[in-house]
Design goal:
D-amino Acid Aminotransferase, Chain A, domain 1; Dna Ligase, domain 1; 26 helices; 722 residues; alpha/beta; six-stranded antiparallel β-sheet; homodimer; Rossmann fold
Chain lengths: 722, 722
């Protein structure tokens, strides 16, 4: 098994391509390792030099007399393959390839990269890169700075994984400037061998790492990422990710049938949502949230108290609370009484508590000691503006004392500084109290903490499995495949759903007028009459659908009209028969259920409200199959439609449990049969109270299709080139 | 006329309450003025001292032998009144009262404040405060730092108005730290005499100020603010405002009928939207946007080019562009050709342009000189990550040269720093190129610039006035007031609308069965039958409404049922007659139009889609009356419903012009008659194509009512106290 221990915790490192020339990568890496107080031995390898920076150099790794754990490769790309063969020969188990010019430049580079992969696979080598910036381990007993950017970052508990080298550097610089401590840094580049999930697996067991941050442009193996993220949750290590490439989604956002909406970015959103990963939109947020989580205290709920010496900050925090789903705690009467007795008469004793501009450290302490006794409090934001009377350092100190005696209460500070690097920031940092520029940031960060800890503390539910008739579905799919078809007929789609326990509106299939009339009389009028055909996708367009037929006469008339139309269009031979369906006018709410296979992710399940307006409002939710009951309920609750099902404004209530059940049954179906590439139930009628749900129409495809996103990207590229 | 010249540009200043004791406000203010290189004369006034900081002190202003332009008052509140009387006697025309303890502490303070106001009114004195932190003018020829926070901020073109003193200080500190130049600062405190609109009026003509930022908790006189904001627009001075107090809105957001949604924060949103004021949600945004506008170059459109040495930054910027409504420019073929020839083969020549990590200043210059020739470009974002090869200062310099030769192209930089205060930031600052931490900020800021300049460059439209029958409305309102009623009957509401040229569904009023039947036959079946009553608000609840009556028999039956029900409920004497209306089933889209009088703001006009679902999705727009045609069209376009009217997914189109016309007619009605406190047209049916719109139902109230917001705040306070 390849191990990342050789990468992050080597006892000896060879820098292949080390150089004494300043401004070169080989020089930057070697000198960074040499000067970063690395606890092992570093060997420069370069046939051109006898020594590099006064350290004896070797012509190749083979020539080094000692065992080597890690090789950092920064030689020209043409000799990378050879160097790696030598590393393998030497028995090196960890390699970081800085050199670029592989997969990212096209076919020739891809070939080179594949050769490299083959060697590492054969020899059980963990390889980072190529086309990366290196790695850092700030742990005191290692102290390895094998990247070429800056001096070793401050040690801390935040790990940083970056797919982009440049963003990795920028992030490191930013962390350095803002004094955010880093445990490990890794620029994963082309991810030829080691990808983000492998790094996650390592970090989960890395005691120095408490928070994991990541810049990603794709996730190599979603299923493995999902598994690792859940393991990280079990260890209460939050993962904060900025995953770019959302914008294609916007381009297709108007379309709202399953296929269209199921762009891969939605798959990423679903993936992250289903394993508690905190997805952010901006780099600034990555660091803000990471800083917040460094306090390592879990809010038990979402009720915050804002304590300030400036009323305006209290108002800003309150607005931010509402915007971010944070509740301003309501005090118990005894808290109000105590605050009233202790604070000056001009103070505002209600939350946000304003203890006025002349508040000193003592007044803050007094207020805090009262507030903390209130049982309605889950977190604390302390916002202090500098005034003539403010001794910020003293307030910071008393806040630290308070935090020490209340280790279970999350405290986020917003002490505003008069200088660029104020002393109080160091004081707060030592006590693990994160400090932010503006109170709205405190609230936003707190909201993400609340959400994360709520997620990891929720009871684990298993994927529900219903008793189903797998064999019938298998038979239908086999038939279709034998007939070399991709699109199921409506009766086929219905049968698949029925086999998985879903109720479809009453229907019959008939071959001629006589059996059509019989079928209608069995179902009961009014009915719908449709053609059954495998090669006609838009039945309405060819006059193949007649609705609301109230009696036998109307049915006969419709039957003849359909046949006439079909004959005129010379489609007679495509017709397999007739579908007679109940024309269902019972009151209810129309919803859409769908599933769409996404390359690499499995099936993406969609739930949403039906109807024209709703396409406009895009009130839909997505999750990746397989789904637990909780997942299904979360999907429903996430939509505004949930308000309707609960009984909007005193109107009827609907059977939410049944909707959840159908979502799970759909999930089970597409999980059992990955051949199903698309399945749309539109509409599904949700009946009032607990009368259940009925599928009114369904379509299914069992074929590999290019996703809408891929098509969109393709056509955009063509446009650009044209 | 009171003039702010005495406040901001005094030749002589008296600090009343000046003190030599460090840590006191009187000391801070006096020493700040004395040490800020003030170009006039400053006099300490304090009967306790013969001198303050070696400057001769006076026992009161009267004792000063010279004329005084500005008095800064920081004496105990009990003697403020007396001090102001003395100032008036001395002929001082500008006063800043730092002292707190007035309106903000309740009745006693309010009384004190009113006395002060009376004196200043009588003597034409411009007074800032009380309960404020002072003012600053950084202009070289004035250099006045009459506040008690820090040393004088860097001079620049951003004015800062703060209602909260503490936030004012925090903002000043932040600006100081982030090197944002300030022209004027004013803490307006209780706004007893001078309010934000007065300051705006002054700043509009202040050449040193190009951008106006503001922290506000309320706007004293919305109409005057509106006027001043428009004047600022004419001078192309953007106003960036953070107005707090949104959160009450959220508490009532679920309710979506006019009254409920028309909270005062919506009035503020409308006010700002109607005069191009940039409202932001966070303090951080105030400064980001102000920084962006300091480049003073107007984007002509929203097409941006992102040029970077790091692909990842390009992706982040592209995502941000889509999120913020900014278009990634598409290059002309010749641009692509030229870029291809000039840039290394690994570069990405499509926008976002990635010229790779080893790009030097020359490559940036080369790329820029090609890109700038493309006619599809409105703005430029340059994002540079530090790599071994990057000479940031050189890149900054070449960017400045480029900016100099392209003065009409807005350039926003994102040069990332290796040090806390890098040299290149100074280089960029001198060339007026704003630099931000992350590319997403550049895009967000650019978006606000695009929006602002689009707003101020739009053609000015006048408020449309239709020919209407004012007299009829006056008569109806007189009648209602004489009868001491507040709620109009339906026929009264209809008549008012008809008088203002709005079409109401065909109706008649009848007194008995005979005339009811006659009315129905004139209208034509099916009809609706309703009671007309002044004191019964919920007619359905008392069985007073029957719909879809298809013939005379059904009408008769309904008539008797209604009368039976009314009799049983002993409501006979409340009935004024019967309303017979066409039961209108023509296809169309239901909308809601409403007007709600908001204290201080005039009437807030609402437009939105009708129906249950839409209440859920809150697809509504608001504007303050009176409205121009453009305002009305903006309202419609702002909603998602606009997509429906335009013909959603190949469905029917609707008459948008007619909707706009009805919005304007409603605006005209409530502007002409401020007695109308609430007017709801719900639903209004919009017919297909150009068949116009018809009001189906309407309600009106002519009474001063407590707004829902006020009620909500009141009940919340009661809860807190209980």
């Amino acid at each position: 098994m390849k191990s990342l221990k050789y990468i992050f915790e080597p006892k000896s490192v060879a820098v292949i391509g080390a150089s004494a020339t300043p401004g070169t990568v080989g020089n930057a890496i070697f000198s960074n390792i040499l000067l970063s107080n690395f606890h092992g031995v570093v060997y420069p390898v370069n046939p051109k030099y006898s020594n590099v920076m006064s350290v004896k150099a070797y012509k190749d790794v083979i020539a080094i007399p000692d065992a080597i754990d890690l090789a950092v490769v920064c030689v020209p790309k043409t000799i990378v393959e050879n160097v790696i063969i030598q590393c393998a020969e030497k028995g090196i188990k960890g390699i970081v390839v800085i050199t670029a010019g592989f997969k990212e430049i096209g076919e020739s580079g891809k070939l080179l990269e594949e050769k490299t992969i083959a060697i590492t696979r054969k020899n059980d080598i963990a390889l980072i890169g190529p086309n990366c910036l290196g790695i850092v381990n700030t742990q005191k007993e290692i102290s390895l700075n094998a990247n070429f950017a800056i001096e070793i970052p401050h040690a801390g508990n935040v790990a940083l994984i970056s797919q982009s080298g440049a963003i990795g550097i920028a992030a490191l610089e930013y962390a350095h400037q803002h004094d955010l401590g880093i445990s490990k840094f890794v620029s994963i580049g082309n991810k030829a061998v080691i990808d983000e999930s492998d790094i996650l697996e390592y970090l989960i067991d890395d005691d120095a790492t408490k928070i994991i941050t990541m810049y990603a442009e794709d996730i190599g193996h979603p299923a493995r990422f999902f598994e690792m993220a859940n393991k990280a949750n079990a260890k209460q290590k939050p993962i904060i990710i900025i995953k770019t490439g959302r914008s294609v989604r916007g381009a297709i956002a108007i379309q709202s049938h399953t296929g269209a909406l199921s762009s891969s970015d939605i798959a990423y959103d679903s993936l992250f949502a289903q394993c508690g990963v905190i997805r952010v939109e901006t780099l600034a947020e990555v660091f803000e949230y990471a800083k917040g989580f460094t306090c390592l205290v879990h809010p038990k709920g979402n009720r915050v108290v804002v304590l300030t010496n400036a009323g305006g900050m209290g108002v800003i925090a309150t607005d931010a609370a509402e915007r971010n789903g944070i509740e301003m705690a309501t005090f118990e009467p005894q808290t109000l009484d105590a605050l009233k007795k202790t604070l000056p008469p001009n103070a505002n004793i209600y939350n946000p508590v304003d203890i006025i501009g002349d508040a000193d450290a003592e007044r803050f302490t007094n207020a805090l000691s009262i507030i903390v006794k209130d049982k309605n409090i889950d977190a604390l934001v302390v916002s202090v503006t500098p005034t003539v009377e403010t001794d910020m350092d003293a307030i910071a100190k008393s806040l630290c004392d308070f935090a020490k005696s209340n280790p279970d209460l999350p405290i986020l500070a917003n002490l505003m500084s008069l200088e660029p690097e104020p002393l109080f920031e160091q004081i707060l940092k030592k006590a693990n109290i994160p400090n932010f520029d503006f109170p709205e940031t405190n609230i936003r960060v707190l909201a993400s903490m609340v959400k994360y800890y709520k997620w990891i503390n929720q009871p684990l539910t298993k994927v529900t499995k219903f008793e189903v008739d797998k064999k019938s579905v298998r038979d239908i799919i086999n038939t279709i495949q034998q007939e070399n078809r991709t699109h199921l007929t409506e009766p086929e789609s219905y049968k698949i759903l029925e086999a998985y326990g879903m109720k479809v509106v009453d229907y019959r299939v008939a071959k001629n007028l006589e059996t059509t009339i019989l079928a209608a009389s069995q179902i009961g009028y009014p009915v719908v009459l449709k053609i059954v055909a495998t090669e006609i996708l838009h039945k309405i367009d060819v006059g193949g659908v007649k609705i609301n037929l109230k009696d036998e006469n109307e049915l006969k008339k419709a039957y003849h009209e359909i046949n006439e139309s079909i004959k005129n269009k010379k489609l007679d031979d495509k017709i397999r028969g007739f579908l007679i369906q109940k024309y269902f006018i019972t009151k209810g709410i129309e919803i859409i259920l769908g599933a769409d296979a996404i390359q690499g992710f499995g099936s993406l399940i969609m739930f949403g409200l039906g109807g024209t307006y709703v396409e406009l409002f895009k009130d839909v939710a997505f999750r990746l199959a397989p789904l637990t009951r909780q997942d299904a309920l979360n999907m429903i609750q996430q939509t505004k439609a949930y308000q309707i099902f609960k009984g909007f404004r005193g109107q009827s209530t609907y059977d939410i449990e049944s909707i959840a059940e159908y979502i799970i049954r759909l999930s089970q179906l597409v999980t059992d049969f990955s051949e199903i590439k698309e399945l749309d139930m539109n509409p599904v009628k949700v009946l009032e109270d607990s009368q259940g749900v009925i599928v009114m129409d369904a379509k299914a495809i069992i074929e590999v299709q290019h996703s809408v996103v891929e098509q969109k990207i393709k056509s955009e590229k063509e446009e650009l080139v044209a």
